[in-house]
Specification:
The protein has 13 helices and 10 strands. With 337 residues, it is of the alpha+beta class. Strands 1-2-3-5-4 form a 5-stranded antiparallel beta sheet, sandwiched between helices. The protein has a 3-stranded antiparallel beta sheet with strand order 6-8-9. It has a two-stranded antiparallel sheet with strand order 7-10.
């Protein structure tokens, strides 16, 4: 095999993936690209007249188990939701997909916002209609484990974390009382994981995918892409095929608060792992989620920095706390059942 920059591919998994996918065909134009927060080695390369993306995970744990998420990726690719898949090794987690020459969702969609929101609802509808993904964990049990891990990290003092999670116990009980509606779920449908290429939406980064309640993905889209109730109505009409019922709207409201807690806890847990000795004084952090989103949309929020992720994580927890303390939460619990 001919590699343009052989020192880039410094793991056996990456080299084996290239050999299995392309044999002796020349591989050129290789360059390392950002791999998000997963820590995987990610490369763009060219072979057989096409651009490809090679992903070689560095870590393997219960969440990042390629024997679970690679079948999810394959199903999504066969449905035209994830980029076409050339190679996948469930033992190492290395995979090669077509490189999407796309732009981020907010920049790349050519059309009015209403059309973009409707396209996202239709995309989630298509994903949830695919053959079932592998099972992994009960979502609420998984959330409990994540909160426990954050609590054990001591990034936040116990009383400070209790304050940030005020109302979560009631949300947990309300969600556990609902009959699950399991579907093939990406579980992290944020704008960074949705690319636009020639007007088409592609979903990437499938490591968190498994069979989960349909409202997990729908809540992520609602929280990350809609700005008001009018846009939320566009999203839900596209997803449900018409206006949502009272029960569907109530379940989505509860799921949106769960999504806020998920992002808050996930980000803060990651920060604790990066700096085990760090201790936060959250009362000194300004974290209004609406302001954070506006700054993100304008490209002036440092989400890739440690301090920026502190603000982002706390902003989500505080959005959930405010909503759970509102009368709307009590109103949503009864019809959601």
């Amino acid at each position: 095999m001919t590699l343009a920059v052989p020192t880039l591919f410094d793991t056996p998994a990456a080299v084996d993936a290239l050999r299995a996918a392309f044999g002796n065909a020349p591989v050129t134009g290789a360059r390392r690209i950002a791999g998000g927060f997963s820590g995987a080695d990610v490369f763009r390369l060219e072979a057989e007249g096409c651009a490809w993306l090679l992903r070689a995970p560095k870590a393997r744990d219960a969440l990042r188990d390629p024997e679970r998420w690679l079948p999810c990726l394959r199903i999504a690719a066969e449905a035209g939701i994830a980029p076409p898949l050339r190679y996948a090794d469930p033992q190492t987690g290395a995979c090669i997909t077509r490189f999407v020459e796309g732009r981020p969702l907010a920049e790349g969609f050519d059309g009015p916002r209403e059309a973009m929101i409707a396209a996202l609802g239709a995309l989630a509808r298509r994903l949830h209609a695919t053959p079932p993904f592998p099972r992994f964990v009960d979502y609420m049990d998984g959330m409990a484990d994540m909160i426990g891990q954050l609590r054990s990290s001591a990034l936040l003092a116990s009383e400070a974390l209790d304050e940030e999670l005020a109302g979560y116990g009631e949300l947990d009980r309300a969600c556990r009382a609902l009959a699950p509606e399991p579907v093939s779920s990406h579980n992290d449908l944020n704008p960074r994981n949705i690319l636009v290429e020639d007007g088409r939406l592609w979903v990437v980064d499938w490591e968190a995918a498994f069979l989960a309640d349909r409202y997990v993905d729908l809540a992520a889209l609602a929280n990350n892409t809609t700005r008001d109730d009018a846009e939320l109505a566009v999203l839900t009409r596209a997803y449900f095929g018409g206006p949502p019922t009272e029960a569907q709207s109530a379940r989505l409201f509860l799921a949106r608060q769960l999504n806020h807690v998920f992002y808050g806890v996930a980000f803060l847990s990651g920060l604790a792992a990066e700096r085990p000795d760090a201790r936060l004084a959250p009362e000194g952090v300004a974290a209004d989620l609406r302001e954070v989103r506006l700054a993100l949309a304008q490209g002036r929020f440092p989400l890739d920095s440690w301090d920026g992720r502190v603000v982002y994580g706390l902003a989500h927890l505080r959005a959930a706390r405010a909503n759970l303390a509102s009368g709307r939460f009590a109103e949503a619990v009864r019809p959601a059942r």
